[in-house]
Amino acid sequence: MSFPWANEYQPQHPLMQWLDAKLPLPRLVYNAIGAGYPVPRNLNYFWNFGVLAGVCLVIQILTGVILAMHYAGNADLAFNSTEHIMRDVNWGWMLRYMHSNGASAFFVVVYIHIFRGFFYGSYKAPREMIWLLGVVIFLLMMATAFMGYVLPWGQMSFWGAQVITGLFSAIPLVGDALHTWLLGGFAPDNAALNRFFSLHFLLPFVILGVVILHIWALHIPGSSNPTGVEVKSESDTVPFHPYYTAKDGWGLGAFLLIYCAVVFFAPNALGHPDNYIPANPMQTPAHIVPEWYFWPFYAILRAFTQNFPLLGIPAKLLGVMGMFSAILVWFFLPWLDRSPVRSGHFRPTFRKFYWLLVIDVAVLGYCGGSPAEEPFVIISQIAAIYYFLHFLVVLPIVSSIEQPEPLPFSITEAVLGSDQAASLAPAE
Amino acid sequence: MIRLISILAGLFFTVALGWALILGVVGLAHDGLPTSAEKKFHEHPKELALASDGMFGKFDRQQLQRGFQVYKEVCANCHAIKLVAFRDLKALGYNEDEVKAVAKGYKVPAYNPGMGEMKTHDGTMADHFPPVVYAGQGSPPDLSLITKARHGGAAYVYSLLTGYQNPPADLPKENQPGAGLYYNPYFANLNIAMPKPLTSDGQVSYKDGTKATVDQMAQDVSAFLVWTAEPKLEKRHQTGWAVLGFLLFATILAYMAYRNVWADKKGH
Ligand code: HEM
Fold first, then answer.
1. Which of B110, B43, B266, B112 is nearest to A419 (CA)?
2. pTM
3. Residues 104-163 of B with CB under 8 A from A
4. Does the CB of A391 have a partner CB in chain B at under 8 Å?
5. Nearest CA in chain A to B57
6. Fewer CB near the terminus (10 Å): N or C of chain A?
7. Is residue B244 one of the residues assigned to a domain?
8. Which residue of B has its CA nearest to A305?
9. What ipTM score was computed for the predicted complex, to two decimals?
10. By residue range, what is the domain housing residue B224?
11. Which residue owns the Cα nearest ligand 1 atom 42?
């Protein structure tokens, strides 16, 4: 798809003409991220993060494939082979730090990308499919990151795997059998480590595939924008190249500066020291905590400390349901938020709840990284209640009673203060 | 319909969490916030400044050699550094012959497939420091990664080594050191199985003339353990500056290109 005024790919060089006739790959690129793709002219820097997420995925795949050449997926060898990479493999320390901090950078970027979507209503029609694919990507990312963290086979690797795979045993009737089947044993061991390695290698390529679908789906309506008003005429857009290649280019530079500062000067700041202790099934760490990007969901998991009143649903099962539902609700977001106005800029009530949600998730994150004791349990219970109410109750109600502020006629008007097309348009 | 279901689902989670919250608050009102002697008496690591700290940090090779000497003469009786190979010691500024001599002083176990049994041989450049057999109470961890495997890193090791003291008078009975344990407020549960390893000034005699006070030895061995945990630290810092320098240059160029491209578009 594209807008009627999109530039048409016209190869000049005979070789490119020949290629265009046989396999129009350059045409595809031209229409996807070249001058042939018209993009709203008013995107702010939050629209840089999709490209940054793509760069993170590429960094993870490149460094990961090389790490896998030196890593040994065996419970007896894994820890030492990781240290072999850090000490003996040429530039191995750099690859490993790039990969472990790359995972964190990826989640930072994707969380900003998702919260951009929450604020600007990017999930609404006609972009539901982009959003749904995004949630699929996020779930795959979480699975990939979890299994990757197990690979160095340190104390947190092992005990994290123990806790998270243990969740499956909360499922009624089949839980225990499923748990044993998934792990290939009663506790994480060589069989589990090996299959985690295999899947950790596979899933990033699955993510890559879903990302391609995500961007394909994006190119049908085109990007939304901070006003949430759809593109109306040519003056609303600029060609992706050179305008957004230039903007994404310098944004990428700024991102890499921060990322590399962490990789080279604080590479262990985001990790847990216990993972430099080899896995020991006989010794439980004082506090088992996952990586920071799981903390909000981990807090929700642990917030369910009591069986459901009267019905008696076990707390553990509630926790598992709660944790997964916390992400699954995102799938329904396009239908829960019914406001026809996309952007939070024009939704005064929604906007307040949005910021409350941001604070709420930060609080959940803080509790998830803290020991499971008071006052953190109580705080995370309150925060988890708000989390669910926000998506399941507040959004549906606010979106049907809220009085939005007036929207600009068009993107051009929002940027320039007036739009010639506006005076020609039929009165509404 | 979907909104009805969603509101019901929201109520479901609210009831489940709200019930847990009520019981939690009741429990809290009854018992108060959890406290433990371990929390109350535990101390955070002391300040320790090392040459390797910070973004410009470099190893002080004299200090690493002194630290290695402390490790070799004191800690090596109980602790191994299995991830370190003898050849790595060259990075401390020793020459080939000196390293070979160190290696030779160790017996390294090796499986002999011909005989089907374990044998030992004199250490060579290619070998790693061998495991240490320890007969006493507790299990001394391998120290190769210790400064990365504890909160506080080198400062923690330094504080632990210099932190032995008599238990305070108001220490609850169940937190008093039992047989074979020693009170040390820097250790997680206050009582450590390691007897005070650095006991008196002059326990080792430094070749470079530095006075071997307990504090000095503790600092030196901590610095050495930073190196064993992160031997590539210097290269990391150097590479980091080169990378940041290049990226800064490239980002400024990219920013100027961006300003240039957008110059004719209002609003940017
Ligand atoms: C590997 C991870 C991902 C990559 C590489 C990726 C890539 C992109 C790119 C390149 C864009 C266009 C530029 C932009 O709007 O920022 C985009 C847009 C979008 N993404 Fe993602 N994305 C990822 C994950 C996600 C996730 C997890 C979600 C939501 C759960 C999501 C939701 C969206 C939405 C709704 C848009 C359209 C935004 C708009 O036009 O307003 N994406 N994505």
1. B266
2. 0.95
3. 141, 144-145, 148-151
4. yes
5. A265
6. C
7. no
8. B20
9. 0.94
10. 41-83+143-173+182-231
11. A134
In this structure, the residue with its CA closest to atom 6 of ligand 1 is: A50
CB–CB contact B21 A378 (8 Å): yes
Contact assignment for A286 to B237 by CB distance below 8 Å: no
User: What pLDDT does A245 receive?
Assistant: 97
H-helix segments, chain B: 2-31, 37-41, 61-73, 96-104, 153-162, 214-229, 233-262
B193 reaches A (C-beta below 8 A): no
Q: What is the DSSP string of B131-198?
A: P----SSS-PPP-TTTTTSSTTHHHHHHHHHH---PPPTT--GGGS--TT-EE-TTSTTSEESS--S-
Residues 150-169 on A with a CB inside 8 Å of B are none
CB distance A200 to A147 below 8 Å: yes
Q: Is residue B3 part of a domain?
A: no
| Structure-token match 């497939």, residue found | B113
Sign of the alpha-carbon dihedral angle for B149, B150, B155, B160: negative
A126 preceded by cis ω (within 30°)? yes
CB contact under 8 A, B55 and A265: yes
**Domain co-membership, B112 together with B72:** no
Q: How near does any CA of chain A get to the CA of B209, in Å?
A: 32
What's the CA-to-centroid distance between A144 and ligand 1, angstroms?
Answer: 18
The answer to whether residues B215 and B111 belong to one domain is no
Q: Which residues of B124-152 are buried (b: 16+ CB within 10 A; e: fewer)?
A: eeebbbbebeeeeeeebbbbbbbbbbbeb
Q: Where are the domains of chain A?
A: 33-421
Lowest-pLDDT choice from A85-99, A101-115, A344-358, B169-183: B169-183
Is residue B210 domain-shared with residue B156, that is, in the same domain? Answer: yes
Six token digits for residue A62: 């490149």
Find tokens 């709420």 and name the residue: A360
A and B: number of Cβ contacts within 8 A? 170
Task: Kindly state whether A374 is in contact with chain B, defined as any CB-CB distance less than 8 angstroms.
Answer: yes
* CATH fourth-level superfamily of A33-421: Cytochrome Bc1 Complex; Chain C (1.20.810.10)
Residue B168 lies in a domain: yes
Per DSSP, the three-state class of A238 is: strand
Does any domain span residue B25?
Answer: no
**Higher per-residue confidence, B265 vs B6:** B6
In terms of domains, do B206 and B89 share one? no
- Is the domain of B71 the same as that of B159? yes
State the residue for tokens 């003056």: A235
Place of tokens 């530095």: B210
Instruction: Kindly determine whether residue B247 and residue A257, on different chains, have CB atoms separated by under 8 Å.
Output: yes
Which residue minimizes the CA distance to atom 10 of ligand 1?
A: A50
For residues B147 and B200, state if they share a domain. Answer: yes
Options A219, A234, A287, A370, the catalytic residue: A219
Q: Nearest-CA neighbor of B190 among B32, B9, B37, B2?
A: B37
